[in-house]
Design goal:
By secondary structure, the chain is an alpha+beta fold. It has helices at residues 11-21, 34-44, 58-66, 72-80, 105-113, 124-137, 162-173, 191-195, 206-221, 226-229, 237-249, 270-273, 297-304, 363-381; strands spanning 7-9, 47-48, 85-89, 93-97, 176-182, 185-190, 254-258, 266-268, 284-286, 325-330, 333-343, 348-356. The N and C termini lie far apart (61 Å).
Amino acid sequence: MSAPVLKSVSKDEAKRLWLHAQKLDERNPFGKGPQATAAAIEHLGYVQIDTINVIERSHHHILFTRIPQYRREDLRRAQSVDKSVFEYWTHALAYVPTRDYRFFAPDMRASKKNPSKWFQKVSKQDLAKVMRRIRKEGPISIRDITDDELVEKDHEWASRKPSKRALQRAFYMGDLTICERVGMLKKYDLTDRHFGWDKKPKGATAREITNYLLDRSLRAQSLVSLDSICHLNASAKPEIKALIERRVRAGELVPIQIEGADAPLHWIKPEDLDQKLEPIEDMVHLLSPFDPLTIQRQRLRSFFDYDHRFEAYIPKEKRLYGYFALPVLVNDQIVAVLDLKTDRENEKLLMQKWTWTAKKRPRELKAQIEEELGRFEKFQLAK
C-alpha cells in the first residue's frame, strides 16, 4: 500500500474546522435545558471544573458559552436527577458523560490498589468510617462530619478533617461519587446507589480506552495532533500513535499539515476535511481560560497567533492581561483580552482591564463586544 499523501490546509481553514467541532460557530447548537447541558458535555467529552470564582466558575462559564439559555440548575439536574453526567479526573477534575463511565473504571481500580501519595495517610479506619456512615445515613458533605479530631494541615489546600481525605480517596476509588454540588460544596453518595446500579459497568480494556481518547478528540477538535489528544497524558502517546497509523492505513484518517503555522503533524477524518464550512459572522464569545478552546496554550497559539497567559498566580506588577483574563473570540479571531470581576454585592460586572490584541479596532467591533458583555453580565448576576 502506498504512503498516504500529506495534505495541507490553511490556518484559516484549520481554525474553522476546530471552531465548528467546538460548536463555537453556531448560535444555539445544543438547545436548552438539562438535556442541552448533557449533550454539550457528551460532545466536548468533558467540562473542566475550577474553584476560582472572581467571575462565574469555569464549568458554568464553558456551558453558557455554547448554550445561550443555560441555567446553573440545568447542570445540577443533569448530575443529581437525570444522572447523565458525573465527576471524575480527566486532565483535571471535570464533568464527564455517564455513558463514558467504563473508560474511567480502570483508573478507579488502579487508585484503589495503589493510592497516590496524597491519599497514603488515609487510614483504613477513617475510610471504613465514612463508608459506613454514608451507607447508613445517605449522602453527606464534609460539613456534615462534626466528630473528627482535627489535625494539622500538611498542605495549604488540605483540610484539618481526616474524613475529607477519606471521602476523596473513596471517590477516586469509585466507591463514592459526587451526587450533588452546592457551589463548590460536594455531597458524596455510594456510586451504585446514586446510579441505581446492581453492579458498576465493566471497565473498558486498554485498547478500548485508546480508541475512546482518539475518538473523543476527533469529535471535539476535528483535526488532532498527538499533543492535543494526549494533553497532560504523555504516557498514552505510543498507543495513540500506533492507532492513528492503523486508521491512516485503513483510510479512516488523513494526515495534514497546517500552512504557515508553528504546528506539528495533524490528522483528520476525510469527511471532516471535505466539509464546506461557511465563514463565521456576528459571533462573539468571552472564553474561560479553562475552555476546551483555550486550555491547550500551544495549540491556541499555533492556530490563533495568540499566546494566552493565566496570571492569577503571578504577582500583580508582572501581569500583562490581569488576574483572570478572558480571551474574546469574534468570529474566528481573538481580538481582545478582558480582565473582569463580578461585584455580587452591588450586582455589577466590573471591567478591570481591556487589552486589544487585534491590529485593527473598528468601532463596530467594540460595540459587538460590549453587547456580549451585557449578556454575560446578566448571566453572572442571575440568581
